[in-house]
TrEMBL record:
Its EC number(s): 3.6.4.12
The Helicase ATP-binding domain, residue ranges: 28-206
EC class name: hydrolase
Keyword Nucleotide-binding: yes
GO biological process, one term: DNA repair
Protein name in the entry: ATP-dependent DNA helicase RecQ
Keyword set includes tRNA processing: no
Signal peptide: none
SUPFAM superfamilies in the record: P-loop containing nucleoside triphosphate hydrolases
CDD domains tied to this protein: SF2_C_LHR
C-alpha cells in the first residue's frame, strides 16, 4: 500500500512550505485500507484536513460524480467555516470537487437540487442528515457514499443528538455497506468509549485509534483584580477595564462567557471601557442568522479586535489571527477550557494564550484546578448511556417517511447503533405502538395514528400529511419558547425566551444584540422594540447553566485540605482558607462538611458538597421538604456550584437525618411528580417523539400552545396510562439531565459515612459566597453584582473575625 499523495495534493503542501503530519498520513493509510478511524489530536494539528485527506486523494485519483463524503458537525457555524477552509485548497489545487453545506439555514431550492445532484462533499448537521433520510430518493443519494466524517464528536456523542446520529449512521450503513466511519476530536478522555460508539455494532476492534502529535503547552494565566478577589459574583465583571487592556495589546481576542445573558452584559461593560473605540462584536445562539454570519465574516477577515461569545463558538471555528482567549468566570471543566483555549493561535507549533477571570474566591480555586488539570493532561470524563426512546421514535418515523419497513429488519439495523444495542423486543414494540396510535389512552384520536401495518407485515405512514408534519417538526434541540425581537420596520435582531418577555411591559428596557432596547409592543410571537440610550436589564436564558465537572470538583476539594498548595494562592484567598480552618473546619476530600449557625433571627445550614448547581438545586428542594416535615419551618434555600444553604425559623440540630439516602426513594419521586420538572421533561420528549407538533404548514404554534397541548396529554397519561413510553422517557430525562440524580446519589452516599457537622456561633468564611445569594437568585439588573459585593463585604467582616 502506497502513501504517496496525488501530485496536486503534494504540490499544494509544498507551495505552502508544509509537509503532511504523521497523523494525517496515518489517517490517509486508514482511509486507503477502508478502515473506520477515530483521530484524537490537539487543536491546530490539522484534524479537519486529516479527516478529509483520504477523500481528497480518492476524488483526485478516481474522479466520480455523486455524494462521496458526508461531513457532520455539531454547529451550523462550523459547517460554514469548514466549507470556507476546504473550498480554498480545492480551488488552489485546481481539482473539480464540489463542496456544499446543508443546514437549517440552506435555501430550499438548493436543498431540493442537492437531493437530485448532490456535491461530492456535503457538510451538514445531525438534524439535517436525519431529514435527508426521510426522502425516498435518499436510497439513491447515499448508495455510493464512501465516508462519513464526524467532527468534534465529543460535543454530541453522549447526548440525544449523538443518539440520533448513531441511528442515522446505522441507516447509512444499511444503504451503503462499504461506508467508512471517521470521527475527530481534540478533547477525549475515553477514546475507547468513542471508538465503541463510532463502530458498527459497537465492535471497538473495527475502529483504529489515531493519536495526533502533541502541541506546545498553552500559556494560561489567572487574571486577578487590582485589589482583592471578590467574595461574590460569578461573572468577572469587576475586571472589564483589565480585559479591555488585554484586548488593546493583542491582535484579536475572543472573550468567552458561560451564558448568553452574561455575554450581553460583558459586551456592554467592555464597550464602556473602550476608549480607543476598537471594533468589538458579540456572537451567541439567540442572535439572528444574518447577525451571526456578519460577525463570523468580520472575524475571518480580521476586521474585529475582540468578539464576546458563548459556547456557540467553542468548537472548531478556525480564525488564525486570534492570539488571545479570555474566559469570563470559571470554566466549569478542563475539557471545555482546552477547547476554548484552542481558538487562540490555532496552530500546533505555537502556544495558545489564554486568561481566566474568576468571579469569586471559590471560582479562583476552580480556575486554579482547571489550570492544573490542563497541565496534567486530565480531561473531563464523558458518560455514555442507553439511547433515548423519544429519539428512537423520531428516527423510526423518519425511516417510514422514506419507505415502508420490515419490523425485524429495522430492529436489527437499530441494534447496530451502540446506544440501542441492548434494546429489547418488548421496548421496541412499545415505541412502535406509540407511533402507531399514541398508546391505548390516545388511540381514539386519528391524529396520533401515524403508522399502519400492511397485510404483508410492512409498516408505512398512515397518511401523507404525517410525512409533511414530521419534516416540519423533526429535531432534537427543544429550546425554551422564544419570541422574536425586531424593530417596527421588520428588521429582526434575534430571540429571547418567552418567560423573560412575559416580565416586560411597554417602556421597559433590556440589553440585546449589543444594544439597549425599549419595548414598544409585545405580540404573540414578536417583541417590538426601538433603540434607546436608557439603562437596561439583561435577557435571562433558561437551561444555559454549565455544570461543574466532577474532576474539577475533586481538585477543589483537595485544595481545601492541602495547605501546602495554598502558597500558590493570592494572599486574600489564602487568608480566607486559614481563618476557615481556625473558626470552623476544612473537610477532607471524602468528607461532607455541614455548618449550622444563627444570624439575624434565622438559622442557617450550609453543606459544602461541590456537586454542581443542578444537583444542589434538586437537593435544596428535597432537603427543605424534609425540613418542613420535621417541623423546622424552612424559609428557603440558595445554591451555587460549591455549596447549598438553607435558612429556617428553627435550627437544624441533626443534619445527618436530612441527608439520608432514602430521600431519593421517597421525597425525590414525590417532588419530581408534583413539580414542573416532569412536565417540562414530558414537553421535550413529546415534541422530539412527534406526539405534539411545533409547526403546521404555513403556521407555527406559540410556546403557550405547545405547552398547553403537552400538559393536557401529560395529565391524561399520568391518570390513565402511567406506563406510557413517553412518561418513561420523561422520567429518564428528569432523573439524569434535569436533576443530576447520579451526582446526588454520590453526595448522599458520602454523607452517610463521612459527614462532619460543625455548629457555629456565627457565619463562617466559607459560607459567605453562597449566603450572599439569598434574595438575589433571580436579579438580572446591571447593578446586581454591585449589590452583591456590598452585602458580601459586610458578611465577610463578620465571618473573618477571630474573636
Amino acid at each position: 500500500m502506497t502513501l504517496d499523495l496525488p501530485a496536486q495534493l503534494a504540490d499544494w503542501f509544498s507551495k505552502r512550505g508544509w509537509a503532511p503530519r504523521r497523523h494525517q498520513l496515518d489517517m490517509l493509510a486508514e482511509g486507503r485500507g477502508g478502515h473506520h478511524a477515530l483521530l484524537v489530536a490537539a487543536t491546530g494539528a490539522g484534524k479537519t484536513l486529516a479527516g478529509f485527506l483520504p477523500t481528497l486523494a480518492e476524488l483526485i485519483e478516481q474522479p466520480t460524480e455523486g455524494l462521496h463524503t458526508l461531513y457532520v458537525s455539531p454547529l451550523k457555524a462550523l459547517a460554514v467555516d469548514i466549507q470556507r477552509n476546504l473550498v480554498t485548497p480545492v480551488e488552489e489545487m485546481g481539482v473539480d470537487i464540489r463542496v456544499e453545506t446543508r443546514t437549517g439555514d440552506t435555501p430550499s431550492d438548493r436543498k431540493a437540487r442537492q437531493r437530485v445532484k448532490p456535491p461530492q462533499i456535503l457538510l451538514t448537521t445531525p438534524e439535517s442528515l436525519s431529514l435527508l433520510l426521510t426522502y425516498p430518493d435518499s436510497f439513491t443519494m447515499f448508495a455510493g457514499l464512501r465516508t462519513i466524517v464526524i467532527d468534534e464528536v465529543h460535543a454530541f456523542a453522549t447526548g440525544k443528538r449523538g443518539d440520533l446520529l448513531s441511528l442515522c449512521m446505522a441507516r447509512l450503513q444499511a444503504i451503503a455497506p462499504a461506508m467508512r466511519r471517521v470521527a475527530l476530536s481534540a478533547t477525549v478522555a475515553d477514546p475507547d468509549g468513542y471508538r465503541a460508539w463510532l463502530a458498527p455494532d459497537g465492535d471497538i476492534e473495527r475502529v483504529t485509534l489515531v493519536q495526533g502529535e502533541t502541541g506546545v503547552d498553552p500559556n494560561i494565566d489567572i487574571l486577578l483584580p487590582e485589589d482583592r478577589v471578590p467574595w461574590a459574583g460569578h461573572s468577572g465583571r469587576y475586571a472589564a477595564a483589565q480585559v479591555m487592556a488585554e484586548i488593546e495589546t493583542h491582535k484579536t481576542t475572543i472573550v468567552f462567557c458561560n451564558t448568553r445573558s452574561l455575554a450581553e452584559l460583558i459586551f456592554q461593560d467592555l464597550w464602556k471601557e473602550n476608549a480607543m473605540q476598537l471594533p468589538i462584536g458579540i456572537h451567541h445562539g439567540s442572535l439572528e442568522k444574518e447577525a451571526r454570519r456578519k460577525v463570523e465574516a468580520a472575524m475571518a477577515d480580521g476586521r474585529l479586535r475582540a468578539l464576546v461569545a458563548t459556547a456557540s463558538l467553542d468548537l472548531g471555528v478556525d480564525w488564525g489571527d486570534v492570539d488571545c482567549v479570555i474566559q469570563m468566570g470559571a470554566p466549569k471543566g478542563s475539557s471545555r477550557l482546552l477547547q476554548r483555549i484552542g481558538r487562540s493561535n490555532h496552530r500546533l507549533d505555537e502556544p495558545s494564550e489564554a486568561i481566566v477571570v474568576p468571579g469569586n474566591r471559590f471560582e479562583y480555586l476552580e480556575a486554579r484546578a482547571a489550570l492544573d488539570a490542563v497541565e496534567a493532561g486530565e480531561l473531563d470524563t464523558d458518560i455514555f448511556r442507553l439511547g433515548a426512546l423519544d429519539v428512537l421514535a423520531q428516527h423510526l418515523m423518519a425511516c417510514a417517511c422514506a419507505a415502508p419497513f420490515d419490523q425485524q429488519a429495522i430492529l436489527d439495523e437499530i441494534r447496530s447503533a451502540l446506544p440501542y444495542s441492548a434494546l429489547t423486543d418488548e421496548l421496541f414494540d412499545k415505541v412502535l405502538g406509540f407511533i402507531r396510535d399514541g398508546g391505548y389512552s390516545l388511540r381514539a384520536y386519528d391524529r396520533f395514528k401515524r403508522l399502519t401495518q400492511d397485510d404483508d407485515g410492512l409498516w408505512r405512514v398512515s397518511h401523507p400529511k404525517f410525512i409533511a408534519q414530521h419534516r416540519l417538526n423533526a429535531g432534537i434541540i427543544v429550546e425554551a419558547t422564544m419570541l422574536k425581537v425586531r424593530f417596527r420596520n421588520g428588521r429582526a435582531l434575534g430571540k429571547v425566551e418567552e418567560a423573560f418577555a412575559s416580565t416586560l411591559s411597554h417602556g421597559d428596557t433590556f440589553f440585546f444584540a449589543g444594544m439597549s432596547l425599549e419595548v414598544e409592543k409585545i405580540d404573540t410571537e414578536d417583541l417590538i422594540v426601538r433603540a434607546t440610550a436608557r439603562p437596561a436589564r439583561i435577557p435571562t436564558y433558561g437551561g444555559s447553566r454549565m455544570p461543574l465537572s466532577t474532576n474539577l470538583a475533586d481538585r477543589v476539594r483537595r485544595f481545601l485540605n492541602t495547605p501546602a498548595e495554598w502558597s500558590r494562592f493570592p494572599d486574600d484567598v489564602r487568608e480566607w482558607l486559614e481563618i476557615q480552618g481556625r473558626r470552623s473546619a476544612l473537610p477532607r476530600p471524602d468528607q461532607l462538611l455541614v455548618e449550622t449557625f444563627p444570624r439575624e433571627g434565622r438559622n442557617y445550614m450550609v453543606a459544602y458538597s461541590f456537586e454542581g448547581w443542578n444537583a444542589h438545586q434538586s437537593l435544596g428542594m428535597l432537603i427543605t421538604r424534609r425540613m418542613e416535615t420535621a417541623g423546622l419551618k424552612p424559609l428557603g434555600f440558595v445554591a451555587n456550584d460549591y455549596a447549598i444553604a438553607t435558612y429556617s425559623i428553627d435550627p437544624v440540630t441533626d443534619p445527618a437525618a436530612l441527608f439520608s439516602s432514602d430521600i431519593l426513594e421517597h421525597e425525590f419521586v414525590d417532588w419530581v411528580q408534583q413539580s414542573h420538572l416532569l412536565k417540562r421533561a414530558f414537553r421535550e420528549v413529546a415534541v422530539i417523539g412527534g406526539l405534539v407538533e411545533r409547526q403546521h404548514p404555513g403556521k407555527r404554534k406559540t410556546g403557550k400552545q405547545v405547552t398547553f397541548s403537552t400538559d393536557l396529554i401529560y395529565d391524561v397519561l399520568r391518570k390513565y396510562e402511567p406506563g406510557h413510553i413517553l412518561l418513561e422517557a420523561a422520567w429518564a430525562d428528569a432523573r439524569a439531565r434535569m436533576t443530576d440524580v447520579g451526582r446526588l446519589a454520590d453526595l448522599l452516599a458520602r454523607a452517610a459515612g463521612t459527614m462532619l457537622h460543625v455548629d457555629l456561633a456565627r457565619v463562617s468564611p466559607l459560607a459567605v459566597p453562597v449566603l450572599v445569594l439569598i434574595g438575589r437568585e433571580r436579579v438580572s439588573t446591571g447593578s446586581a453584582d454591585d449589590a452583591l459585593l456590598i452585602e458580601a463585604e459586610a458578611l465577610a467582616g463578620e465571618a473573618m473575625r477571630l474573636d
